[in-house]
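Escalated from tier 1: magnesium ion holo job.
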Amino acid sequence: MKIKSLTFRIFISTFFVGTLVYFICAFLFISNMYGYFENQIFNELKAESDFLENYVTSGHAEAIGKIKTENRITLIHPDGTVFFDNTVDALALENHGRRSEFIEAMSRGSAKKTRYSSTMTEKTLYFAARLSNGDVMRISCNQRSVLVLVLGMSQTLILMLIIAMIISGASASYLAKKIITPLNEIDLENPEKSDVYDELKPFTKRIAEENFEKQQREELRQQFTANVSHELKTPLTSISGFAEILKAGGTDAQTTKDFASSIFEESQRMITLVNDIIKLSKLDEKSISLEREALSLREICLEAMEVLSASALEKNVTMKISGDSGLINGVRPVIYEMAYNLIDNAIKYNKTGGSVEINIQNFMAAKDSDKNRVILTVRDSGIGIPESERERIFERFYRIDKSRSRSLGGTGLGLSIVKHAAKYHDASIILKSEEGKGSVFTVIFGM
Ligand SMILES: Nc1ncnc2c1ncn2[C@@H]1O[C@H](COP(=O)(O)OP(=O)(O)OP(=O)(O)O)[C@@H](O)[C@H]1O
Ligand SMILES: [Mg+2]
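Tier 2 regenerated the structure:
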């Protein structure tokens, strides 16, 4: 389950960090204090042993039994036999020759040792010292182990955890509120003017960018509508003019025929225009997904060449195709439109007797992580495109030479369709051109 509440997230992290710090501090504190007290006890045991040494060396060891002390005092001969103990009968005790504190006291003069009881609840501290007469005096006392200490503090520990929870909960809800308030105050229209956290600047920047893009799209749409109306108005005006004259009557047979064919041409123009607009708007609606299939670019180019062969013949332009089959995964009618428009332009903006060369290349990926590429080039020996116009010609309705394009029946939507079709297939377009010599349009699939 994913936790969505900010308050809860802050609570968990505050509580976790708080508890962790608390336990670390408690551990350091307890272990330090425990070590300090242990040291203190050893000092006391040593002081007591120093004080009692006289009794033993002067041969009054049994007098120790009468001394009031909480500690256990054991006297051991150098061979390990116990000859006195103030708490139990010395004779009942086994030989202490192998006890670590005895061995160390014998060799080093004194020893400090600790041993835990089998239940780990108690710890015994031993101080042993070799006396001047060679015997060893061992003094020991019991101390509660850390485990018992901690268990004894368990109530306090639980209380602390509850307090930590309450503090974490309160600070979490306070913090969450504090963090969220400025977020809710962001002005989405002018997000960059709002005073927000530095960490949120990329977010507000993105909104600002999106707002800007939205505004630009809106402007483009308005411009498009204006362009469409204008483009439709021109042929409609002439159709209406011709029809008006015909309606008045009195035109001779030839003029009537001429006017009728003008009306026909103009209405054909309008049909082409409307068709182009429909194609573009289909490509624009990215939400509708057109069906993709395995296509051969070569086949599609051949189809378009076939359709365009009449206009090529009319201009005495020769068309050639070379290269590979160019297998891509694409939407057939869209790819066809792209090829058609590129070849159409290559013929239309060519010189009489010029040529159009179409080439398709397959490039196999060198690595698995790379994509296979298919590159389509349409090269013409036509009029070329000035540097300054190379970007703009892909805009809707943009024509370099309006009157020339119009006379050729152009609407200026062709390259815009090409651009959208390429974008739809994640392909990129590169344009190279030399004025008076010709142009090369390169479309790279699979990038
Ligand atoms: N191969 C080319 N050589 C020279 N100029 C070109 C070439 N292709 C396009 N252009 C220029 O770019 C302009 C825009 O081309 P586009 O294909 O978008 O429109 P069009 O050909 O005028 O009309 P449509 O394609 O809608 O019939 C053209 O008017 C022409 O000036
Ligand atoms: Mg065109």
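The two ends are 38 Å apart (CA to CA).
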